[in-house]
Model the fold of this input.
Amino acid sequence: MLTLAPTFACRRAPSRLIHDCHYTAIRLRPFSSSTPQTLSTTEPAAAAPDSGPFSLAGTAPDHTACVFLHTHAPPTAYPARSKSPLWRAWTMKARQWGGVVNFAWAPDAQLRAHPAYTGLGEDPDDKRLQRERYTASVFSVARRYARLEIPEVSLANLDEVDEALRKLVHGDRDGDGDGSGGGKLAEEAGWPLDARLHLYVCTHGSRDCRCGEGGGEVARALRRELEKRGIGADDVVVGEVAHVGGHKYAANVLVYPFGDWLGGIQDFDVPHILDDVLAWHASNRQATPGSTAAPPARAVAPLCPPFWRGRMGLDKGEQLALFAKAS
Done:
């Protein structure tokens, strides 16, 4: 069994006094992520600037889709580094069209795990016997206001599923970069759409203790705060995920379906962040899951700016430019 034997104490972020003042100042400005502001696309794009000493902007990976493989076990049970043949194979394929692949779990079956497979792809016989299979969630630039659920993905159908997602993201059917062709592909495949808000926290402690400790605290705080507000899983799902990159930004929270990545969050930040996230999502609920009315990623102001790492559909330069434009 792999055990962690760190030679240093699991240190959390330093004092957040300046950071918290920065957050308060930004939340009091006319530009607040509580009311999603669409930025003008007629102005020339700003050059990638210095995003400031307290900014995390530009640290989210450049991706056009995020795939989560649902597991029965939480990330606290994940190995430090996955040996899953399916995850490795799909990661290599998805990288070619801008997708990232990860594992995810949520309590009380809020994310439906595949009933026929309870493992994590670590058993050597899984590949030989092709037992590994998952239900998967997909968020993409093709459908920014909805989650696609793929009932089953395995090594046997991976090529077919991956090609369908590539076409969805790039809109191959209609030549529509916003993904109208992808919507038809999803419907034809029978993949259901889900417009709920999804918050994924990295709690992968075996990979880095900061994620396990800080991420766990934030995940619990999110669930407590939602329960206190009377908001259930019919509206908001709080999931936990494996390594997302950026241990030093723990706790990391990924906000989908629109795809904003937040970092440096601590449990006491949760009420304020949830205020902004819920207001932002509610103001966009009028966009139906099948709608192509979602504005481009670069046209919507950053969510929770002091914690904002970036957004799905933007590369590092575009993330920095958007943050500077909105500041």
Notes: Residues 38 and 206 are 40 Å apart (CA to CA).
